[in-house]
Amino acid sequence: MAGVNFYKIHDSSLIMTDAAQTLSFGENVPSGRTVESVIFHFTQTTPTGFCDGAFDNLIQNVRIILNGDVYTDFRTGVNDATNVGLGRWGYYLQSLGRSATSVEVPSDTAKDYWAEVPMGANVPQGVGRMEFILGLAAAGATATAGNLEVWLRLNDDTQTTTRCITATSFTAATGIQSVVVRVPQNVAGGVLGVLMQNTSSATDGLASQGIRVHLLGSFGLEASLIRYLNSDLSNGIMFAADGVSVTQQQYGIAVDGAFFIPCYMAQGGDIQLEIDFDAGVNGETYTFTPIMVSSLGGSKGAETRSTQSAPANTAKAVLARTLE
């Protein structure tokens, strides 16, 4: 069936607790189709204080693999169930625009969270297999019931592949520091942007010179300019805060300690930065995650097959036996 379809590949009980946990599971996926995105749906019945702000504050790492090929490798070191705002996972997704989603129904005790992760992958004929590793941070309290669903949005008109690449880490020191964000040369496409995170604290840590992105010019970009360029300042941050409202979303202009640095589909090698760190973050760890986008290539539904010729001829086989 062509066009857009939604296909559920996982549905299981999940109780999130006041201790961190890691989920690992794999599922078969429909062959011969194009996966536009993966959709996670979390529901939790909880006591008050489970999570004060956006549910994504409890998502610590996400790894999505299709047939051995890694499409998403997201990690963060800052998770806080008391943060009345958007978390780092939600910030990453919302920075990708309409192709991604991190949204929920605001509620104190009935959590209902959706996250859509752009992918763009052709599944070959035969058996397609997706593997997932989800790291969940400690909640403020233990849920009494819950569930996790994983859906695929299948769309044969998907035009791009999106990859969240393994991050480069860097230890900050006071003053202007050079950072080289490694971009794999064996991955097609350009760098849409770089997700910069302080993984030690919810602190920007930028001094007056901000961040100079070599490919964007000779001047440092201050924090508010970066957030203007990536549309954060235009109320680009949306999150649920049930203590404020259970009927509408809340809006913000920043996620402290995180920046999506636009790179406008940069190509040609690593991304070079000069960052002016203030003294308050001396010794803290930052990560830099390239987000790469390419045209979706490859033949849809190509079947794995052998290529060496092996002629079969019964008459010759019988004759050969008589000649031995």
- Structural class, from secondary structure content? mainly beta
Extended strand count: 19
Number of helices: 3
* Helical coverage, percent range: under 10%
**Principal-axes shape call:** globular
Instruction: Give the overall average pLDDT.
Output: 92
Question: What string, H for helix and E for strand, traces the elements in order?
Answer: EEEEEHEEEEEEEEEHEEEEEH
Proportion of beta-strand residues: over 45%
Strand ordering within the main sheet: 1-9-3-7-6
Radius of gyration: 23 Å
**Whole-number tally of structural domains:** 1
Largest sheet, if any? Answer: 5 strands, antiparallel
Given as residue ranges, the uncertain stretches (5+ residues, pLDDT < 50) are none
The rounded distance between the terminal residues' Cα atoms is 54 Å
Verbal overview:
The chain has 324 residues and is mainly beta. The protein has one domain. The protein is 7% helix and 46% strand. It contains 3 helices and 19 strands. The strands form 5 sheets. Strands 1-9-3-7-6 form a 5-stranded antiparallel beta sheet. Strands 10, 11, 13, 17 and 19 form a 5-stranded antiparallel beta sheet that branches. A hairpin with a 4-residue loop joins strand 6 (101-105) and strand 7 (110-122). The longest helix is centred in the C-terminal third of the chain and has 10 residues, at 314-323. The model has no long low-confidence stretch (mean pLDDT 92).
